[in-house]
Amino acid sequence: MKKRILTGLQPTGVITLGNYIGAIKQMIEMQENYESYIFIADMHAITVNQDPIVLRENIKSLVALYLACGIDPKKNTIYIQSDNPYIGGISWMLECNSYYGELSRMTQFKDKAKKNANFTSGLLTYPVLMAADILSMDADYVPVGVDQKQHVELARDIAIRFNNKYGEMFKIPEPILKKVGTKIMDLQTPDKKMSKSSENQKGVIRLLDDIDVIRKKIMSATTDSEMVVRFDPENKPGISNLINIYSSLTNKSIEEIEMEFKDSNYGNFKSRVADIVVDVISNIQNKYNEILNSDYLDEILDSGMNKNIEISKEFYQKMKKVIGLGRN
Ligand code: ATP
Ligand code: LTN
Questions:
Q1: Which residues make Cβ contacts (< 8 Å) with residue 305, sequence separation at least 6?
Q2: E strand or H helix that includes residue 7
Q3: Of 75, 112, 252, 307, catalytic
Q4: Which residues line ligand 1 (CB under 6 A)?
Q5: How far apart are alpha carbons 186 and 237 in whole angstroms?
Q6: In this model, does residue 179 exceed pLDDT 90?
């Protein structure tokens, strides 16, 4: 039987070309080998302030974008966290089995609390909600970036503690650290990674950017004065980044690309990179628009919701029983 993996995505901001190349392509590979659950962690998003209209829009938009990128709803169960009425209760029962001390020591909490002294208590208890997501879906593995590894380890600690106190209940999940794939850099400051939350929009390509804007961003990417298309990330970070993008989207090797453009100037090279990026992204955008405007999306989310509720409801009831809540 296939092992179960669970991935949670926060619906904040439109994903970038960096996320696509670095993360989504890996998820598309994993969907072949695992029983995969992907959910939109909208309840996590409200640990910090969100505009309700923007948040609501981002949720479906993110699902449509993942589907448009090639996440296959036949191979993944996709759902929205807040569609499950049991998750809050499960999280509470786990909160009462976790400690203020361990939560206040989480790196992400300390970083965020330092930035805003007026933080919510949700920011502190966020990792317990994440433990609830993971444990109540009986996940074997949780693929995460290194910043979330500590939270998965806390979920393991909470699961072990709960099992010891109340008897075997939860599987002990393991984090899988996502492979470090090609890191795509900011087009304007190529010593910095391309990031959703970057201030400077000119250096970041978002999958829902206007196609003409994407082309302009690539044509005005920072380069160097050597005028040779050569891969050398240390001395030529801008050109090397464009080579990486081109290579990731065409599957051509770096050597092949250097050969292909050995007689080209930077203008020609950039224009070819722009062609490929525009081709891939316009394809994604066409599918995105089709999906967003169809009933298909709600069908997928309803079916994901039902499966999510079915599995976690059972945990909810078993947990209540062993803790002594409710009636006989
Ligand atoms: P934020 O700006 O909010 O930190 P981000 O765009 O940096 O967001 P994350 O949400 O931290 O992205 O990461 C989501 C996934 O995308 C992770 O698996 C991460 O490794 C991958 N990823 C993010 N940025 C890049 C990039 N520039 N190149 C390759 N992979 C990336
Ligand atoms: N905290 C994660 C999102 C997330 C998650 C999860 C990931 C919430 N619940 C459960 C894996 C499993 C983030 O901010 N990326």
A1: 79, 80, 83, 84
A2: strand 4-9
A3: 112
A4: 16, 18-19, 21-23, 145, 178, 183-184, 193-197
A5: 10
A6: no
Contact 297, 71 (CB under 8 A): no
Ligand 2 pocket residue status of 7, Cβ below 6 Å: yes
Q: Report the distance separating Cα 30 and Cα 60, nearest Å.
A: 22
Ligand number, closest to the Cα atom of 177: 1
pLDDT digits (tens, 9 = 90+) for 238-272: 999 999 999 999 999 999 999 999 999 999 999 99
Topology given in CATH for the domain delimited by 201-289: Tyrosyl-Transfer RNA Synthetase (1.10.240)
- 181 confidence band (pLDDT: 50, 70, 90): confident
Domain layout of the chain by residue ranges: 4-182+295-323, 201-289
Please state the atom number of ligand 2 nearest to the C-alpha of residue 127: 1
Say if pTM beats, i.e. exceeds, 0.90: yes
81 lines ligand 2 (CB under 6 A): no
Q: Which CATH superfamily is domain 4-182+295-323 in?
A: HUPs (3.40.50.620)
Q: Which ligand is nearest to the CA of 128?
A: 2
